Please model this.
Amino acid sequence: MPLPVPQTNVRVVTLKVDGQDYSAREDETIIEVCRENKIPIPSLCWMDGLSVVGACRLCVVEIAGSPRLQAACATRVREGMVVQTNTDKLQRYRRTIVELLFAERNHICSVCVSNGHCELQWLAQTCGVDHVRMPYRNAGYSVDSSHEMFRVDHNRCVLCTRCVRVCDEIEGAHTWDVMGRGSGCQVVTDLAKPWGDSESCTSCGKCVQVCPTGALVKQGTSVGEMVKDQTFLSILARRRSHR
Amino acid sequence: MSGNGSKVTVATTWLDGCSGCHMSFLDMDQRLVDLAEQIDIVYSPLVDTKELPEQVDLGILEGSISSDEDLHKAREFRARCKLLLSLGDCAVNGNVPAMRNPFKLDDVIERAYRENVDVNPQIPTEGVPALLATVRPVHHVVDVDIFVPGCPPHADTIHYVLTELIAGRTPDPGRVTRFGA
Model:
């Protein structure tokens, strides 16, 4: 199958990121330009191949002339844009966001099946989170092991909604969705039925592979054994969008 | 950092932990011989002293704050140590001991000492410290200067942190360790 040919009528813009000049297609977002050019911006909910929700705010950047911080995943590049990706202020915000994620649910890395292969754990290290300053909520969440192949542990969920989007946009099953508000918010299968009773789930496992933490995992994995492979996503997404 | 004499004085203790961090300390193996020339362990489960001295250069705490005794020890360490270091995930973030937090303390005790016990079930009250309702990391009850996450932190990590401190530099443990490492 040939690779899709990019549209030719898209203009190219030039912008400055961290003092360096870059050119980009005008339909690209800041995070896409940064990923292409190996400029490290932390992100959690954004994933190449899925729609953009701009929920986690880890990829916030400073844009000259804008009083507010902007999510790099949800902001298109503009001609003459001047972007800062790693100021002290941004580092402070990112650190706080990661700490709040740890404080919200029960991420016990040492006994997690994703220990050592977890994006949240990695973010904590790269954002300089060596402790959490705010009090932990200590609320207990359920674990659903009813599916014969997979398990969901809501204690580890960060509500990035990657599972919801990959199930809807790539697999086309829309088994996953989000229920409740605030601290009661959680991802659910089929109107909050046990996963094993879901009639729409095709057991394809894409949700498990894109989950950044140990929330969605394979049954039978022990501490540190859950290694995920996300390479399928950008390939499927690219082929799908140009049919 | 340096003590009044030639050696840096170090005190360590474990609170609600498994002693694994202290085992990892011992895993520095032959490097302990060199360290012993630069530091003096004045109080620790690894030595015989029964009293924490009034003034210590570096205090190292393993384990979380789970009982009133843990709380007392942490406060005593903070008051007497110039620098206080949280060693390992239990001290840094509560880790496994904090997994009881979503449950009520009475339910936890009931489960551990009655429900799962076949012979003479009873709740211990004498000679044991009272448990706190919530398990907390050390820095949620006293100020902590250095955080070394890991379960346990690798011996290389502990060696790096200690040698940096002895040399008078501020270590950056995030370079070599993380939660769950």
Observations:
- Chain A has two domains: 12-86, 91-237.
